[in-house]
Amino acid sequence: MDISLYFEPINEDIVRFKPKQFAHSAYGHQMSINRKNGSFPILEGAEIALIGVSEDREALENKGCGKAADYIRSRFYQLFSWQSNTNIIDLGNLRNGENVKDTYFAIEEVMSSLLEHDIVPIIIGGSNDMVFAMYKAYERIKRVVNIVSVDARFDIGSEDAPIDSQAYLSKIIMQQPNYLFNYTNIGYQSYFVDPELVQLMGNLYFDTYRLGVVRSDMKEVEPIVRNADMLSIDASAIRHADFQGNYYSSPNGFSCDEICMITRYAGISDKLSAIGFFEYNPMLDNNLQSAHLIAQMIWYFIDGFYQRKKDSPQFSKEMFVKYMVSIQDGLYEINFYKSKKSERWWMEVPYPPSQKARYERHNIIPCSHKDYEIACNDEVPDRWWQAMKKMV
Q1: Are 368 and 219 spatial neighbours (Cβ–Cβ below 8 Å)?
Q2: What is the mean pLDDT of the chain?
Q3: Could you tell me where the beta strands, DSSP code E, fall in the chain?
Q4: What is the pTM of this model?
Q5: DSSP 346-390
Q6: Closest Cα partner for 360 from 382, 391, 389, 385?
């Protein structure tokens, strides 16, 4: 499939693309970029692909986020790469379809093609309903997926309501056949969320982490993100003092260093295969400082990507120390794995033999040393229990 038909070149008036202005080690110099008078980047051998999305027709109160991609590029191209032998391409900006569903389809087509070629897409710009299109790409290649979303709200919506930037999750849940294994929200803010929705998420065995809980121990975010196939970040999850380029930004949220920490966790995860940055509105951005922050978030993701350890137990258990913990007089037995290379932890969750095809990629889940300590104290870790309920 020739995916170049879906793209238009970057807007050089905004990006101010002049190769000579970039140092040799700056991303703007190193990357193969879809320019107006250049050739389309070659996919073969590429490891990461930037995709600009200009779709904001379903952005509630945040029209303008469709203009985000080139403003982010104007900051990202200037950042220096500390990695050698990288192969990152910028495919340009996805052409909007005649209607929003056409744009969803284009994202699905392009992203599924990249995933099949083991290229990690970084989607920049557009409204949060693009998460639905990202999910559809995994559905197309029949891959069961874990979605992790950094968001101040639950964008669930009702089953009958049309998709928009705050109502798309219900459409993912209702897809048949369904390839969603788990959905996780990181950083919801209680005053923005109906208590009944929190209960609903629990009934669906989804994982939700309130902002205050997450910020009290940011290291515990790492295994949550490590379990994701795709990560989406809604700009409204960042506090207004650090990010003005969003209509819904509020006094509380993640700080700039915390959100960069999350994206680096995503980068070093061997499992994560796609990431999206949504709802940034350059029309609300003073001096493009918010664009600069997203550029740095992308920098942290890429820096993490090139430091992946390839040490998941799914690859090889020989690189791990195995700990077997018996809980409550043998009622539960949990196998823990600690990587000899990175010292990261995983734990094994049993599943019915008849469900091997669906759960084989998801039964060894990332955890932390704290989960191991909980098990050693004769308690079942919440993370293990939540995963267990999904598999029975």
Answers
A1: yes
A2: 92
A3: 7-8, 32-33, 48-53, 88-94, 120-124, 145-150, 180-188, 207-210, 230-234, 274-278, 320-327, 332-339, 345-348, 364-367
A4: 0.94
A5: EEE----GGGHHHHTTTSEEEE-HHHHHHHHTT---HHHHHHHHH
A6: 391
Please name the helix (run of DSSP H) or strand (run of DSSP E) that holds residue 15, with its range, or none: helix 12-15
Report the 10 Å Cβ neighbour count for 280. Answer: 30
Report which of 276, 245, 248 is spatially closest to residue 64, judged by C-alpha positions.
245
Instruction: Note the pLDDT of residue 33.
Output: 93
Q: What is the pLDDT of residues 241-282, one digit of tens each?
A: 999 999 999 999 999 999 999 999 999 999 999 999 999 999
pLDDT tens column, 40-78: 999 999 999 999 999 999 999 999 999 999 999 999 999
pLDDT higher than 60, residue 19: no
- The count of C-alpha atoms lying within 13 angstroms of the C-alpha of 149, restricted to the half-sphere facing its C-beta, is 29
Residue 101 CB partners (closer than 8 Å, separation 6+): none
Q: What would the mean pLDDT of 359-380 be, rounded to a whole number?
A: 91
Cα(300)–Cα(275) distance, rounded to whole angstroms? 12
| CB 123 within 8 Å of CB 268 | no
| DSSP code per residue over 73-97 | HHHHTTSBP--SS--EEEEEEEPPP
d(CA 211, CA 218): 10
